[in-house]
Amino acid sequence: MYRFVSCCCLYFLLQDVIATTSDEACLSLLFMGDWGSDQVKKVTPFLTEKENAHCAQGKKAASGLFLLGDNFYPDGVSSVDDPLWERYFLSPFKEVNTSMYVIAGNHDHHQKDIHAQLEFQDPRWHFPSPYYAVEFRENDLSILAIQLDTWDLVGGNSEAGTDIVDKEQFKWLRLQLEKSKQGNYDYVIVNGHYPIRSVGGHGDVNALVNEIVPLLQKYEVSAYLFGHDHILQLLKEDGLVYVGSGVGGRKEGPIHDTNRASYQSGEHYGYVSIAFTKSKMNIQFHQIIHHESVITYEVNVEGKRTHRESNLSLLRMKLQQALLLV
Question: Of 102, 208, 285, 316, which has fewest CB within 10 angstroms of its CB?
């Protein structure tokens, strides 16, 4: 009799654990870099809430749009009244109501500093400081996104030097990653303009490879997203996932070492969307072809971080409790 009751208890306990790992909850985010040109108007119609849905069979709109730098070609903006605000942002993004989380690229730093972008006021435009963190908690999912200013990290030149220059930002990044362990996040992603690994024309950035990669590995970062090279790309190296989205307003960047990448293309303007569930990231690469947004590559990547271990620990504990009753 006790064995029968114990088996019944074990069954329901297992069902409880399985329920905590279901894929029903979903949160989607968009990523687009190198968008600061007149060509961005070819992409923005597909970033509206009506068009950008990735979760719930295309019914739930994205929770945020990450703008990955080079926001204003060729040399940034000089003030909050610069005409480029209307030309590259206010006009082409007028139908895009999604919250946008912004970082700077090298072109934003050219000749002018980025203070005008930090001071610009628009309810959709979130750029509180050169580097910052933002979290999403909804639908029983939690994501921490860490935003970097990679220009400052490497001292402005991505192709020279093997060490991080901005020690304060590096210290801040390490602190954010350390604190993330207490946040019980399902996913932690890091976004920067410069790539760490890339098959594009600029290639790997040695300083970031040498000093940032060990941090991302140690703290089990789910993905690093970037622009700079004017292609879309997906690489899996160093035990990490690198996602390049640098064709928002520029395209046809050179591609090298194609055997390294799971996917690479620079023929069309486009962007990346990621749908996060409890068990995986569904990554879609979108290109604008004949005035339509076409998914040209799609892949599922296991990106779970904290709940994998916590659920296994929970299962182990409940199994032990049930066996004690047998």
Answer: 316
